[in-house]
Amino acid sequence: MKIVCDKSLLTSGIGISLRAIPSKSTMQILSFIAIVAEDNKVRLVSNNLELGIETELDANVIEGGKICVEARMFSEIVKKLPNNEITMEVNDDTNSDSGIKNRTMLIKSGKVKFEIAVMSTDEFVFLPNFSGDENIEISHYDLKNIINQTEFSISDNENTKVMTGELFEIKGNNLRMVALDGNRIAIRNHNLVKEYKDVRAIIPGKTLRELSKIISDDIEKRVIIYFSDNHVTFKFDNTTVLSRLIDGNYYNVDKMLTDTHNLKVTVNKAEMLETVDRSLLLRRESDKKPIIFDIYDDHINFSMKTSVGSMNEDIDVTKTGDDLKIGFNPKFMIDALKNIDSEEIDFYFINPKSPCFIRDESKSYIYLILPINF
Amino acid sequence: MKIVCDKSLLTSGIGISLRAIPSKSTMQILSFIAIVAEDNKVRLVSNNLELGIETELDANVIEGGKICVEARMFSEIVKKLPNNEITMEVNDDTNSDSGIKNRTMLIKSGKVKFEIAVMSTDEFVFLPNFSGDENIEISHYDLKNIINQTEFSISDNENTKVMTGELFEIKGNNLRMVALDGNRIAIRNHNLVKEYKDVRAIIPGKTLRELSKIISDDIEKRVIIYFSDNHVTFKFDNTTVLSRLIDGNYYNVDKMLTDTHNLKVTVNKAEMLETVDRSLLLRRESDKKPIIFDIYDDHINFSMKTSVGSMNEDIDVTKTGDDLKIGFNPKFMIDALKNIDSEEIDFYFINPKSPCFIRDESKSYIYLILPINF
User: Fold this and answer.
1) Rounded to 5 degrees, what are φ and ψ at B211?
2) In chain B, what percentage of residues exceed pLDDT 90?
3) Tally: H helices and E strands in chain A
4) What angle, rounded to 10 degrees, do the helices at A330-338 and A269-279 form?
5) H-helix or E-strand containing A141?
6) Chain B residues with CB inside 8 Å of A292's CB?
7) Which end of chain B lies in a sparser environment, N or C, as judged by fewer CB atoms within 10 Å?
């Protein structure tokens, strides 16, 4: 194998590949990237068996071939090379005594030469080639937003596997993504450009988080998504992301939602976010005290009392309905507020024991948060 | 106690005080700041018994008093207050049943109210008042530089206590600071504005590191330094930093230095720094391989070979003297190079077993690095 390629293209390709490299692994091969060179293209492939990524870049392929390199070291070396032109060449030195092949790759850039150990791709698991019967289209921008605005509600409790993923549901032209963790639910609804066949699949949270880091925030560029039996594939730019789906039945989310309420409060998001954020200062891991919302007249009085001190703060709101005193985990409030992109936010309450709903008129977002007894 | 003060002044005062707050401690009181309010001044005092800091700010003192607060929580709360005007007021609530005093401090800013537990200053160790017979003057800028350009050579091996500090030595109008760790020595010489009596003291590395973070890089502003039997005091702006000195005899550094050399090499600093830095990519904790300098004609060929690969790189230099092949710990080279503020640097070598010296003509800096056998 002998390739001449651009440092900038290679660096960004490696950056994408690293998203499927586990931070530690018992299987050595999982920390390797496969480099496949043919037809003036270089493909970089990484695969942790849950999530696989393949990304392609233009290169001058002088001699085709394929090889595996340790991903992080390769990444570090390429980043620190001095020139934009990089030459990579694989050499097979056979030790004349032992007959053992000692395979290395020479990486050259300007006067700099690195030689690193490489492995054959024999043990490497390349991505299977799936094709779905329907290609769902969504912009980079929308997909990235929907993921970022829901993923914080994904549970990290591996005992309830379905909770560690998000529901990806298509009905007609509506895409709904749902994440829940037993204390809260995050829902985003999004209008797709056309109608598709129904989809109901659970995509692992890890896949979505890595995906959202790779896709751009370009509203013009498209991601193509298709589902096969146990997998979902995302195709965009020169990159394919393939992920296993989570087996199992997702919760019946509609049963958990209601429009009934006894109190509606409209608050200034920035003001409320600052207040709730300050309450965290007093919170200690040992006593997970709630922040109390005392809602009366046109005010919310926020208060918290913990082993180290107390806080108390008033903000003006627009209120329709009954007075109410209710307590919440401030972290859950902050997660939801941070991810809503509007100045004023509507809260809907039923009573101190029932969940509160944060949503807009059109229900493009719905956040449900369970209260805490106090 | 009741104070009204400026958030910005208070925040910067707390920032300074935190430098003497240990990250963890078995003695609770060490994680507290003492607040002393009198005569329209507020003094903040922190003391970890090695290093003590006292800093003063202007305030409207409505009622004088003194109190201790948990430093980090106090810092976090103040940072997140909404308005610049902060009111702090200590309340003594005596529980009518138990008769136990429950002391709290109310912190108010705009509509925000925090109430936190406080402690009396009974257990707090305030700083003793030392005065030295001679006040040494140096600019913030110079002191900060001298510390930063030597402190990386301080040893962290607590078994050889004197190595965990720096030699602070004054002879006439020359200040010399020396740090060494058994593999290398860092020396800076600096001309003071006037002559002082001889000083030879060992200042703890931790003190110097914290001090360099507090002082500015203003060349016009002065730090006043004076020594008493076991302590050194630094006074600047509204702040006093007091530190214990390290007991013991420092090494005879002059015995370790020599001007004799068989080879002088002048290199471009930036170029060499990049090269040596790249060699770190191949270095693994398990095999601490040296970087080899092969110095011949007008080149240095740098190479390193480890379990994961090898690198090889040439740079052009100006050379006077014998050819030489010598190996070094690349980290030590990088530390020295990074801290020299000139484009071209002179290296002096004797033979592959003797230390190399990096110094300028006037010896304002001398870095000695021991070679590694290879």
Assistant:
1) -60, -45
2) 90
3) 6, 24
4) 150
5) helix A140-148
6) none
7) C
Tens of pLDDT, residue by residue over A46-101, are 999 999 999 999 999 999 999 999 999 999 999 999 999 999 999 877 666 666 66
pLDDT above 70: percentage of residues in chain B: 98
pLDDT band at residue B95, thresholds of 50, 70 and 90? low
Mutate to test the interface with A, among B31, B68, B116 (most CBs of A within 10 A): B116
> Least CB-CB distance to B111: which of A82, A282, A314?
A314
User: Rounded distance, CA B291 to CA A340, Å?
Assistant: 53
Q: Which of A1, A10, A89, A113 is nearest to B282 (CA)?
A: A113
CA distance B109 to A182: 37
> Measured between alpha carbons, how far is B298 from B313 in angstroms, rounded to an integer?
14
Find the residue in B nearest to A103 (Cα): B309
Taking contacts as CB-CB distances below 8 angstroms, the residues of chain B near A281 are 73, 76-77, 80, 114
In angstroms, the separation between the Cα of residue B32 and the nearest Cα of chain A is 13
Overall fold of domain B136-255 = DNA Polymerase III; Chain A, domain 2 (3.10.150)
Give the span between the Cα atoms of B31 and B50, in whole angstroms.
14
Alpha carbon B165 to its chain's center: 10
pLDDT tens digits along B114-128: 999 999 999 999 998
- As given in the structure block, the two tokens for residue B193 are 């504005």
Confidence of residue A103 (pLDDT cuts 50, 70, 90): confident
Q: What is the pLDDT of residues B315-348, one digit of tens each?
A: 999 999 999 999 999 999 999 999 999 999 999 9
Q: Hey, which CATH number is domain A2-117, 3.40.190.10, 1.10.10.10, 1.10.260.30, 3.10.150.10?
A: 3.10.150.10
What amino acid is encoded at B182 in this protein?
G
Which residues of chain A does CATH 3.10.150.10 include? 2-117, 136-255, 257-369
- Per CATH, the number for B257-369 is 3.10.150.10
- Which pLDDT belongs to residue A271? 96
Residues of B within 8 A of A317 (CB-CB) are: none
Has the ipTM of the complex gone over 0.90? no
Type of residue numbered B84: N
